[in-house]
């Protein structure tokens, strides 16, 4: 089993964090959950995460803003973007900014956990 | 000042094949037609023909009257001439007889005149006055006596009255005297009567002229009223229709004429206009819903995702979770499902067809449900709103869904005017009695003064294709106008835009 990675989950829907946390922790990751993107960015400034799972549309800075911040400040962090409404433009933009994956809601917990695993490998490599 | 106000009449640019549409509308059109047709017909043409016939008959009557007057005058003139000549000759004969120089030729003349006068007096022609006609037999008797005796005298050949036996001479004198008296009376009467007749013949045309003048004036006034009044009314109708009120023309008089045919045609047109507008409103509603799609998809996918991942957790960890934890997860599923249903319900509420008959609508409810519908679109665009409604907002005339559509269009415009987010203020009040106004204010990019006059034009949009249809405001104005209300937009470029939607209060029953 791969060693755990620091994972940040950011979504203004609290239930997403609540369900993802135990599922990821079960795989040995350390998980921090945020529902406010501003606080999340503050935390990203303090700590390096292996993987960031972020929602796209949120009050305040959007997932895209967070992605840009990570690309500039923490290039090693792999970012998985989830969104409630996927358009071709947003997925292109996310890819252009180097997101690892673009996931549309509703997603399967198992699949997301698997994606985080793969991203974590990439991050630690 | 970059602020200006725009009020524009709505135009209907689309034209389409007739389709069944609102059955309610067809029924209302049929009723309006029945009301118009269900009156006795009194056509303009009939009235014109009757009036002209009346004029003609009057002229004929006067012409005939004048003709008969002339004839009477002519007959009287002849009578008078004859009688006067007779009188003259009789006087002369009497004078000559008194002198004893009576010649046979004089007697012949009197006899001749007698011969001319007698048939005139005897014929019960209209030449004689009524009282003269009564006197005529007596006169004729005397004249007859004169004639008989004078003829006898003539046969006796000369020598004056002396040529007659004494009692016959006396009889002749008596008859002459009596006849002369009666004759002069008749002549006097007939003079007066002729005078009257002539004066009547003089006055007749003047009276006719006066009467015809009166009649013509009457006809002209009646027709002017019959023409001008409906034309004025139709002017009002067109103004009303231009203002967006498509209600059918109702009967304004107790009878129908050619203008009623026009009213029928206009009603048919109004029915078509209403159907057109209904189609346009429906199309614009779908467009507004289309604008909401991303928001709604997002808003729906969030609870759906929550349900999905919670159910997945439950399935995976069924054995390891405590009952308390399971309970919490099930609760999450339950409430997230509620959340999704609520979104679907509000969307269905909005798109549902409703009766187009206006009723009393609770504005606070309309504002609340529309804000909920647009809530996610606002979240997505970092737009927050504040809503201030007085507690006792009166009900307004309209239908809830169409008013929601108006408000949604205005809200979407406000959201789209603030691409970097901002705030929308929604408030309502009764600035004037009988009217309730909703105000929606944003702090967006505003509308430049040169654009402001065009924003109510159908299909006018400053937005890129796919984002704007240009139907929002034109349709909203049309909707508000059908309920007797108005829409006003004031804006200052760079500062923001304020929209006032005012509606008449619903009549309380
Ligand atoms: N709140 C607003 N702020 C700025 N511009 C507005 C606002 N509301 C309307 N407009 C202008 O009026 C135009 C017509 O609006 P509308 O009829 O709703 O059509 P659409 O929104 O599809 O463009 C818009 O394209 C925009 O230029
Ligand atoms: Mg619009």
Account of the 3D structure:
The complex is a heterodimer of chains A (125) and B (509). Chain A has 125 residues and is α/β, with parallel strands linked by helices. Chain A is 46% helix and 20% strand. In chain A, α1 packs across α5 and α2 (37-46) runs parallel beside α3 (63-73). The two termini of chain A are 15 Å apart. Chain B has 2 domains: 46-218, Four Helix Bundle (Hemerythrin (Met), subunit A), CATH 1.20.120; 271-504, 2-Layer Sandwich (Heat Shock Protein 90). Helix content of chain B is 64%, strand content 9%. In chain B, strands 1-7-8-6-5-3 form a 6-stranded mixed sheet, with helices on one face. Mean pLDDT of chain B is 85; it is low at 1-20. At the A-B interface, α1 of A face α6 of B. Adenosine-5'-diphosphate is lined by residues 409, 413-414, 417, 442, 444-447, 455, 460-463, 468-474, 497 of chain B. The site of magnesium ion (MG) has 5 residues of chain B, from α9.
Write the layout of secondary structure elements.
The complex is a heterodimer of chains A (125) and B (509).
Chain A: E1 6-10, H1 14-25, E2 30-34, H2 37-46, E3 51-55, H3 63-73, E4 78-83, H4 88-96, E5 101-104, H5 109-124
Parallel strand pairs in A: 1-2, 1-3, 3-4, 4-5
Helix pairs in contact in A: 1-5, 2-3
Chain B: E1 4-6, H1 23-37, H2 44-99, H3 104-122, H4 130-155, H5 166-242, H6 258-316, H7 323-351, E2 359-361, H8 363-380, E3 383-388, E4 396-398, H9 400-416, E5 422-429, E6 435-442, H10 472-482, E7 486-492, E8 496-504
Parallel strand pairs in B: 3-5
Antiparallel strand pairs in B: 1-7, 2-4, 5-6, 6-8, 7-8
Helix pairs in contact in B: 1-6, 2-3, 2-5, 3-4, 4-5, 6-7, 6-8, 6-10, 8-9, 9-10
The complex binds adenosine-5'-diphosphate and magnesium ion (MG).
């Amino acid at each position: 089993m791969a060693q755990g990675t620091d994972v940040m989950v950011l979504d203004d829907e609290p239930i997403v964090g609540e369900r993802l946390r135990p599922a990821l922790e079960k795989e040995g990751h350390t998980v921090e959950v945020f529902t406010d993107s501003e606080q999340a960015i503050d935390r990203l400034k303090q700590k390096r995460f292996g993987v960031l799972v972020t929602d796209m549309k949120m009050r305040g800075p959007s997932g895209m803003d967070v992605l840009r911040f990570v690309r500039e400040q923490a290039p090693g962090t792999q970012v998985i973007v989830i969104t409630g409404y996927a358009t071709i433009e947003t997925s292109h933009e996310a890819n252009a900014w180097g997101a690892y994956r673009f996931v549309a809601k509703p997603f399967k917990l198992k699949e997301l956990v698997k994606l985080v695993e793969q991203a974590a490998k990439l991050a630690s490599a | 000042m970059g602020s200006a106000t725009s009020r524009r009449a709505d135009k209907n640019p689309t034209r389409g094949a007739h389709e069944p549409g609102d059955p309610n509308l067809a029924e209302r059109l049929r009723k309006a037609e029945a009301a118009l047709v269900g009156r006795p017909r009194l056509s303009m043409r009939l009235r014109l023909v009757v009036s002209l016939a009346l004029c003609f008959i009057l002229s004929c009557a006067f012409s005939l009257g004048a003709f008969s007057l002339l004839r009477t005058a002519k007959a009287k003139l002849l009578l008078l001439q004859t009688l006067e000549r007779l009188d003259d000759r009789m006087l002369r004969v009497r004078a000559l007889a008194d002198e004893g120089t009576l010649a046979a030729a004089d007697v012949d003349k009197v006899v001749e005149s007698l011969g001319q006068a007698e048939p005139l007096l005897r014929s019960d022609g209209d030449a004689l006055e009524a009282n003269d006609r009564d006197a005529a037999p007596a006169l004729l008797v005397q004249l007859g006596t004169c004639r008989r005796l004078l003829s006898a005298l003539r046969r006796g050949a000369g020598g004056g009255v002396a040529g007659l036996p004494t009692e016959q001479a006396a009889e002749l004198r008596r008859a002459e005297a009596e006849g002369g008296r009666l004759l002069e009376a008749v002549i006097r009467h007939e003079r007066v009567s002729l005078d009257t007749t002539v004066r009547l013949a003089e006055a007749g045309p003047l009276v006719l002229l006066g009467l015809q003048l009166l009649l013509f004036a009457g006809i002209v006034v009646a027709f002017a009223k019959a023409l001008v009044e409906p034309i004025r009314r139709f002017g009002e109708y067109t103004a009303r229709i231009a203002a967006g009120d498509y209600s059918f023309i109702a009967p304004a008089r107790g009878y129908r004429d050619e203008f009623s045919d026009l009213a029928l045609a206009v009603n048919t047109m109004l029915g078509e206009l209403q159907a057109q507008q209904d189609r346009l409103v429906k199309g614009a509603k779908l467009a507004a819903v289309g604008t909401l799609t991303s928001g709604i998809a997002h808003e729906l996918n969030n609870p759906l995702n929550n349900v999905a991942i919670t159910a997945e957790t439950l399935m995976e960890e069924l054995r390891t979770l405590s009952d308390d934890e399971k309970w919490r997860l099930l609760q999450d599923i339950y409430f997230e499902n509620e959340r999704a249903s609520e979104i679907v319900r509000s969307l269905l509420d909005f798109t549902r067809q409703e009766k187009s008959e206006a009723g009393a609508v609770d504005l606070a409810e309309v504002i609340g449900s529309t804000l909920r519908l647009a809530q996610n679109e606002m979240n997505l665009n970092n737009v927050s709103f504040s809503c201030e409604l007085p507690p006792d907002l009166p009900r307004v005339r309209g239908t809830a869904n169409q008013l929601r559509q108006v408000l949604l269009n205005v809200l979407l415009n406000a959201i789209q005017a603030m691409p970097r987010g901002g705030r929308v203020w929604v408030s309502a009040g009764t600035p004037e009695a009988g009217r309730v106004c909703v105000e929606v204010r944003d702090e967006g990019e505003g509308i430049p003064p040169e654009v402001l006059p065009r924003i109510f034009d159908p299909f006018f949009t400053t937005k890129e294709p796919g984002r704007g249809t240009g139907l929002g405001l034109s349709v909203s104005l049309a909707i508000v106008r059908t309920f007797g209300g108005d829409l006003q937009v004031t804006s200052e470029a760079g500062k923001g835009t304020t929209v006032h939607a005012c509606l008449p209060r619903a009549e309380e029953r």
